[in-house]
Design brief:
Blueprint: H1 2-8, H2 10-17, E1 21-25, E2 28-37, E3 43-51, E4 54-55, E5 58-59, E6 66-70, E7 86-88, E8 92-95, E9 98-100, E10 102-105, H3 115-133, H4 159-163, H5 167-170, E11 177-181, H6 185-194, E12 201-205, H7 212-215, H8 224-229, H9 233-241, E13 248-251, E14 268-271, H10 276-288, E15 292-302, E16 308-317, H11 323-327, H12 349-367, E17 378-382, E18 387-391
Parallel strand pairs: 11-12, 11-14, 12-13, 14-15
Antiparallel strand pairs: 1-2, 2-3, 3-6, 4-5, 6-10, 7-10, 8-9, 15-16, 16-17, 17-18
């Protein structure tokens, strides 16, 4: 796939055809064997790294003028630094297999039109002092370098993370099997958000059909033909999100005591079901197996002045601390239609999405993606006063 990307990109192909050691690793382009002079007036060889912008099946216009460098600070032939290049000197892990030592900034008027112009401009600046010492030195070795096919779960490179330079942070989410039990309103948004992360697999459990009311509380806009076919939800979502993420695994079943063992393979589970008895058996099983999970819920009511108010709830069970789940009655185990604190089964897309957002943020905190200050285990968002109450804070 990556060689095809070079073949379809005139600028990248030109770099390869002219003998530069170009390769693609995930969402980055690298050119190695760049000769330069170091501070001791010696000749060394480094690698230039740039974020990769993709447009369709080829490279797009570079989104910025900065490049990264693996190597020492390039110098003039007298050993003084090429000051015009200096941008940053922090050693940083950009992604698996890519650890850079510094960054350079050289911006032409209007920016770079393509990667050929960007790379050759930096190569000339970096290599000129070395070539003035030995004119046989060149980065054009005509050595074919294989591009690295990463073990990405995506069907295309995650250039969003590379542009923000947070690939190494996103990698904290890798190697996980996630479960979402119930892909109705909140569960479908959870799938939407988690499908954009590099987890290995996302197992979705639901035996319901995707019908008309689902279209108004789920992400996206399904075609009317889908609603006429009334597909099983998990099959529909597998087809939609499988276009992006390779690891969507549908389970067209209701999770009951008879099939709880299917959850044992998972690393983290999101529970988005209203049936209290089913939820109780799921949570008891996860606690017994010390499986990390988050249970979400909402209770919305109609007020006397004909407006809506209520609460969104996010309760987490982390293997090190789960006693609050049962001892403090944090999760209601009555069915959604019964009268209790979370009784009203009103579902509104933005509230489903917000409930999912808060759950995903909590999961990412647990993974170290976001910084966690208080390590709360139970949160309530109040709609009418826009407040969040955090409880069961682990010291």
């Amino acid at each position: 796939m990556l060689h095809k990307l070079i073949d379809h990109s005139p600028d990248l192909k030109r770099l390869r055809d002219e003998g530069y050691e170009i390769q693609i690793r995930g969402a980055h382009v690298l050119i190695g064997n760049i000769p330069y002079v170091n501070s001791n007036k010696g000749i060394e060889f480094g690698t230039i790294v740039s974020e990769l912008t993709i447009a369709g099946n080829k490279a797009g216009k570079p989104n910025n003028h900065v490049v990264f460098f693996i190597g020492e600070q390039p110098c003039h032939k007298d050993g003084t630094e090429i000051a015009a290049l200096i941008h940053g000197k922090n050693k940083t892990k950009l992604a698996d297999g890519i650890e850079i030592d510094r960054s350079f900034s050289n911006k032409p008027s209007g920016g770079y039109t393509d990667y050929y112009q960007k790379f050759t401009t930096y190569i000339k600046i970096i290599s000129a002092p070395a070539q003035s010492i030995d004119n046989s030195l060149t980065a054009q070795t005509f050595k074919l370098i294989d591009s690295v096919e990463t073990d990405s779960p995506f069907n295309y490179p995650d250039t969003n993370s590379s542009r923000a330079e947070i690939v190494s942070i996103s990698d904290k989410l890798k190697n996980q099997k996630i479960g979402i039990i119930g892909v109705g309103g909140t569960g479908s948004y959870l799938l939407d958000f988690i499908a954009k992360t590099p987890v290995d697999q996302i197992h979705i459990f639901d035996n319901d059909e995707f019908v008309l009311h689902n279209a108004f509380r789920a992400p996206g806009a399904p075609d009317s033909s889908v609603l006429k076919e009334t597909p099983i939800k998990v099959n529909y979502y597998c087809e939609v999100y499988g276009k992006m993420h390779k690891g969507i695994v549908p389970h067209p079943v209701l999770v009951t005591k008879d099939n709880l063992s299917e959850l044992d393979q998972l690393d983290f589970v999101f529970i988005c079901v209203d049936n209290g008895q089913s939820k109780k058996s799921i949570i008891d099983h996860l606690i017994e197996r010390k499986k990390n999970f988050i249970d979400v819920g909402m209770g919305i009511e109609i007020t006397d002045d004909n407006s809506l108010l209520g609460l969104l709830r996010i309760t987490s069970g982390i293997s090190e601390k789960m006693d609050h789940i049962l001892t403090k009655d944090r999760i209601p185990f009555v069915d959604g239609e019964e009268e209790d604190e979370y009784s009203k089964n009103i579902q509104i897309a933005e509230l489903n999405a917000l409930n999912a957002v808060l759950a995903v943020i909590k999961w990412k905190k647990h993974c170290g993606f976001y910084h966690q200050a208080e390590n709360e285990k139970h949160s309530l968002y109040s709609i009418d006063d826009n407040s969040i109450i955090n409880e069961d804070i682990e010291s």
